[in-house]
Amino acid sequence: MSRLHVSDATVRFGATVALDACSISVEPGELLVVLGPSGCGKSTLLRAIAGLAPLDTGRVTIDDREVTSLPPAARDVSMVFQGYALFPHLDVERNIGFGLRARKVADAEIASSVAEIASALGIDDLLTRRPHQLSGGERQRVALARALVRAPALALLDEPLASLDAPLRVAARSEIARLQRMRGTTMLHVTHDQAEAMALGDRIAIMRGGRVVQIGTPTEIYEHPASTFVASFVGNPPMNLLPEGADTLGIRPEDVRLGAEGAAARIERIERMGDHTLLAVRIDDGNTILARAARDVSLSVGDLTHVRWDRALRFDANGEALR
Questions:
Q1: Percent of the chain with pLDDT over 70
Q2: pLDDT, tens digit, 9 for 90 and up, residues 82-140
Q3: What integer is the mean pLDDT of 254-262?
Q4: How far is Cα 4 from Cα 20, in angstroms, rounded to an integer?
Q5: What is the CA 71 to chain-centroid distance, rounded?
Q6: Which site in 62, 113, 192, 272 is 20 to 30 Å from 47, CA atoms measured?
Q7: In the sheet that 154-158 helps form, which strands lie side by side, from edge to edge?
Q8: Helix 136-148 vs helix 166-183: angle between axes, to the nearest 10 degrees?
């Protein structure tokens, strides 16, 4: 298990600043999920750690060993890309063992390591197949096996589930979490999917504009967002943000209560979600908020009601949380 520290990392592509003095630390054996919208610098951060995107300024250290100027092969880092990048002419066994063979590991050790990781990921019956004979979920597991077969100091996963459909994504993220716990690998997992981040991460790092703007456990990120950006990005549906003078109130839809007390309101839209109902409610001050209600709620569009909330957060004029 290894510790990672990235300090003030800046990466520029011409006039574009992809990483802007970005700093982050990952503890040994931790699964840290890096979450943010497209273009925020998530993938560039992973590529900078792996040595694939040279830093303009800043440092990368792994277990107190500075690797900033080292080539990728000298960093003891494995990476899984969104496209898997499997070799089409090699079978599964040789795809998984490719990195070990490149390092001239003995054949017997390669066979043992490949068999162990393939068994752990449930692909031991696929070793003689070629990538074109595999499903998307199977290819994803082969790519993960190739990255972890040699027990790297760090495993970097760049949107590895993005091309899978919803049921496969759920199954695959469970496999990733189980394997990471079993092997104790220090892992960074990049995604734009907040449900994936909440389900997988020991901690979540939220990125915006090339910087980490908040880092914490899934509960901390959800319950105590550091800004209106984090509040609106994490949560499905997102937090309601209501102006109140110079400040902004943040209210989670599940904290909104409908009934005989509170501000007068009218039901504008009803979405039946199966296990719950989502209501868009216009308050008498003109603002519309979302409320999460029971699936059997007996309200119709146009009905009058009242709303109140059990809990609200407050943000200042710059969108920063007020404690």
A1: 99
A2: 767 789 999 999 999 998 888 888 999 999 989 988 887 788 899 999 999 998 888 88
A3: 92
A4: 18
A5: 26
A6: 113
A7: 77-80, 154-158, 187-191, 31-35, 203-208, 211-216
A8: 20
pLDDT tens per residue across span 310-323: 899 999 999 999 97
User: Which one has a higher pLDDT value, 267 or 164?
Assistant: 267
Q: Taking residues 263-272, what's their average pLDDT?
A: 94
DSSP string for residues in 250-314: EE-GGGEEEESSSEEEEEEEEEE-SSEEEEEEEETTS-EEEEEEETT----TT-EEEEEES--EE
Nearest Cα to 143, choosing from 41, 170, 198, 159?
159
Q: Which two tokens stand for residue 53?
A: 């995107």
| Residue with token string 């919208």 | 37
Domain locations along the chain: 4-228, 240-322
Q: Which residues contact 316 (CB under 8 A, 6 or more apart)?
A: 246, 247, 248, 322
Nearby residues of 32 by Cβ (< 8 Å), 6 or more positions away: 24, 26, 187, 188, 189, 201, 202, 203, 204, 205
Q: Give the mean model confidence (pLDDT) for residues 238-243.
A: 94
Using the predicted structure, report yes or no on whether residue 163 has a pLDDT greater than 80.
no
Q: How far apart are CA 118 and CA 141, in angstroms?
A: 9
Confidence label for 175 from pLDDT (cuts 50, 70 and 90):
confident
What sign does the CA torsion over 211, 67, 64, 159 have? positive
Give the residue carrying structure tokens 């904290």.
255
Helix (H, G, I), strand (E, B) or coil at 155: strand
Strand partners, 34: 190, 205
**Which CATH topology does 240-322 take?**
OB fold (Dihydrolipoamide Acetyltransferase, E2P) (2.40.50)
pLDDT beyond 80 at 197: yes
Q: Which fold has domain 4-228?
A: Rossmann fold (3.40.50)
**How many Å apart are CA 258 and CA 281, to the nearest integer?**
10
Are 195 and 37 in contact by the 8 Å Cβ rule? The answer is: no
Which residue, among 256, 295, 292, 255, has the nearest Cα to 275 in the 3D structure?
Answer: 295
